[in-house]
User: Fold this.
Amino acid sequence: MDAPFVRRMVADQFPKWAGLPVRPIATAGWDNMSFRLGDQMIVRLPSAVEYSVQVEKEQRWLPRLAPSLPLPIPTPLAVGEATSGYPWRWSIYRWIEGDVAAPERIVDLRDFATGLARFLIALQRIDPTEGPPPGPHNFFRGGSLATYDAETRHAISVLRGRIDADAANQVWDAALGTRWERAPVWIHGDVSAGNLLVQDGQLSSVIDFGMLGVGDPACDLSIAWTLFAGESRDAFRAMIPLDRHTWARARGWTLWKALIVAAGIADTNAIEAARPWHVLNEVLAGYH
Assistant:
């Protein structure tokens, strides 16, 4: 996929935007190929069949969630259809200004953490009726960690000698030993730095809801170890009204993702591939 091809697709299906320039986005994610359309829009094309089912889900639910949230989220504008050169439906959204979150771009990480906590609390309070339960559409985010038990045990075995395997097994066993026993709530499913935007040093928007669903919110708490530390982690945890069992599962979700990337089990992008060792250190530090 390149800009001329996307420009032709837009012109064929949305003639009113035919004259707008199209250019690739260098920091596009793993699940979608993304292109700027003019100055006010973004074209997102699923990169594989397993991500294509997310188009309809986002088109349906994001407009319903947005009014109840304290920060902007993507606004769907149109759905493109499959063509002879591209096999799935695709989306056009309103462009949201901002830079991907990184510690050097954030004025006060503790304040950033509390702002994100407020967003997640608001998301969890939205009526989940008819929301999509965990499944293949979001790789079972919000569901049981047992889905990934064999994969996690294998990764621990592969990395034995490079990580504290005993601590990893303890973290994983503690996570599997609990479950979400309350009504399902809305989850973003991929609360990572790459899906948080910053303007003027402040959290300004939450993007990429492809893993959206309703279920156990533990998976949305992994950011406590992947971005926050010390005071910011403590502030984030203090704001989230969830019990220690949910936090144990959150640690488990974080461990699973870091393990499979570090062990080379998961396909991922270059940015994520560089991070698992730091995350593993954060998750396993002092855990015995």
Remarks:
- The chain has a mean pLDDT of 94.
- The CA atoms of residues 39 and 248 lie 43 Å apart.
- Residues 3-94 form a domain with the Phosphorylase Kinase; domain 1 fold (CATH 3.30.200.20).
